[in-house]
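Here is one such tokenized protein:
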Amino acid sequence: MAGCSSSSTDSGAAASGAPSCPTAATPVTVSVNQWGNIVEQLAGQCGSVSTVVTASSGDPHDYEPTTGAIAAFSKAKMVVINGAGYDEWATKAVQANNSSADVVSAATVNNVQPGANPHLWYNPTYVTNMANAITAQLKVVAPDASSYFDERQSAFQAAMKPYFAEIDKIKGGAAGKTYGATESVFDYMAQACGLVNLTPAGYQNSITNESEPAPGDIAAFNADLTSKKMSVLIYNTQTEGSVPNQLVNKANSSGVPVVNVTETLPADVGTFEQWQISQLQSLSKALGLS
């Protein structure tokens, strides 16, 4: 599932026409690639970015850092994490091996408290706030490159415009649209798009607490799929299991569209915004909006 990847080159649409870095590249370590790709785009040639969890398979919650991952944290001048308990292993690695590193936490930036949904990169407002915070911290650690980072941020904002346009399009047609989810990874985005969450509360609580859902909650979920009370089923393909697989089968047999999403940036997708736009387009099609 994971392994350190390093980048000191331009990434994604933000690379277009970018100038050369006026100073030495700053070593930055990022816990997960959902944020790692954003950091790469914002840091450009002025960042030597190492991302720990890089592949879209398995459950990132269960990641155990390797010796190489620990080394990446120990060498970083700046660290970017998700927080909210999602990547606690990264917090511990920094505290134990590099307590002087400047840490940018998505949870801290967005005032997200412990126990909240930790899938913060699916919240469009949180992503914007985090991009601003990353750029601000890059300017602190490499002040001679401040103008360069401003240009990178402007390019990133331009690259994100189609992402926000897709969200607005879905929101414009979301009246009366509902969803169920096998896992809460996409909930922030679904809310931003104006969809109503019909996932049974008992089921959702069990999944959040990593316990087996009660038979009654599974039955309620199945009933809402059979009756098409749910417009779509959101399926996190990285948390497979007998219950999610059964719900997908029920949705398919009931004629409820299934929208596949992933928790981390897939290896075959270039940038954060391309990943998100692709999933949003799938959602729009499933809802009959495109």
Notes: Residues 163-286 form a domain with the Rossmann fold fold (CATH 3.40.50.1980). Residues 200 and 221 are 6 Å apart (CA to CA). The first strand starts at residue 5 and ends at 7. The first helix runs from residue 33 to 43.
